[in-house]
Write a structure and sequence with these properties.
- The chain is an alpha+beta fold and 76 residues long.
- The chain has a domain of 50 residues.
- It is 20% helix and 32% strand.
- It is built from one helix and two strands, in the order ββα.
- A two-stranded antiparallel sheet has the order 1-2.
- The radius of gyration is 15 Å and the shape is globular.
- It binds zinc ion (ZN).
Length: 76
Amino acid sequence: MKCIICKGEDIKKSMVKEELKIGVDIVYIPIEVPVCSSCGERYYDRRTMQYLENEEKKLKDKKVNLHEIGKILEYA
Ligand SMILES: [Zn+2]
């Protein structure tokens, strides 16, 4: 498999934190996806996309336990 962005061939499965925007909040979901080690492009297959959509739905329905790891701040 070649990277479609940089044509690099070093694509490895890695744990990443996918960022989901839920309203004004951001939730990180740890998933394992193939990542290009040269440019950092992530490759999502159908199953991963479905998993993320499903998690997003659960998050919007508040069916997931979360803990706060930081804050999102904006210039006043
Ligand atoms: Zn790449």
